[in-house]
Known about the structure:
Elements: H1 6-9, H2 21-38, H3 43-57, H4 61-79
Amino acid sequence: MQHPNNDILDLPQPTEEVRPWHAEVGDLLAQAAILCVQHDLDVETFMKGAWSAYVEARPGLKDYIEEMQLRNQLEEIRKLGRMGEA
């Protein structure tokens, strides 16, 4: 018996094959790569775009990465003796 809200919730029917999320991601990445190749986009630009999209999809990740980079820079400056520890 079909649940009456399946149409509203847009849930797959039990007989439909549900693909794992990583298969969907692989397909989408492959499609994006094909488009980039067709439009002569170099791999570095493709990778930067993919990384940027990933970071933007994770709230707070960009700030965290920037903070870690700053901490590492400060640690290097301290190791070189250019800044004292507080």
